[in-house]
Every structure is written in structure tokens, then in C-alpha cells.
Amino acid sequence: MRLLRxxxxxxxxxxxxxxxxxxxxxxxxxxxxxDVPYTHAAKVVAELQHLGLLDARRGRGGGLTLTxxxxxxxxxxxxxxxxxxxxxxxxxxATPCPLHSAxxxxxxxxxxxxxxxxxLDPLTVGDMVASPTGPLLLGxxxxx
Length: 144
Hints:
The protein has about 140 residues and is mostly helical. It has 8 helices and 2 strands; from the N terminus they run αααββααααα. It has helices spanning about 5-20, 25-35, 40-50, 70, 75-85, 105-120, 125-130, 135-140; strands spanning about 55, 65.
């Protein structure tokens, strides 16, 4: 299974903010740290703010901060939210699969997808920044 770029970025932004230690990086700084376009980071940050996982403040003294809900958020839940409920394969697309009515693959792939999410469910954002990851994240920060 391959994650959407926005899903990957969402988890990395949360992890980056989890090690911010009192600093409040801007969306632009986080985009630079993560080497992604600002517009893409801004969309992901807006969704994370909407979900209550981070706070974003504009203007002087503003920036991004992780909420307590963000620190304790299940990685599986974040991934599910950004990936959506769709199947791994599109059996009913523009050209429906001729095996659709008797296919066992679709169910097996759905089961594998749920196992993937379930393996991420017990992990929190806080867990993801335990050593050695947290110190490495601090090292890539664009802020002094």
C-alpha cells in the first residue's frame, strides 16, 4: 500500500511539531524543513487544524503548535482520515472489472488494508518522536 503525499506529510508535520519544544514554526518553515511546496503544506496544515490536531496562529508571534489531541493522536486514525475509506483497487471504475461479482481479491485486499491501519492504531504521534527520531527531527529544523 502506498500512502498519499498528503498523508505522509500530515504525519511528518505532526511529528515535527511534537519536537518543537516551545518554538512555533510557521507553515513556510515546516514546508522548507520537509522539502515540500508551501501550498501543499498549507493544505495539510489547514486540515490538521480543522481536525484539532494543531493550532495555527497568524501574524507576529504566530506559528504552528501541536495540541494535546495531536500529541496523543493515533497514527492509524490520522492515516485513515487522510487516506479515506476507498478500496485499494477500484473494481467499479470507468471500466468495471469483469470478475467483480465473484472476486475474492477485493475482500482480501480490504482485509490487508484494515490490518495495515490496525498496526498503526496503537502508535501515537508522541511515540513516533521517541529517540532516535526526535533528535533527528530537531536537527532538520530551519530555526536556530
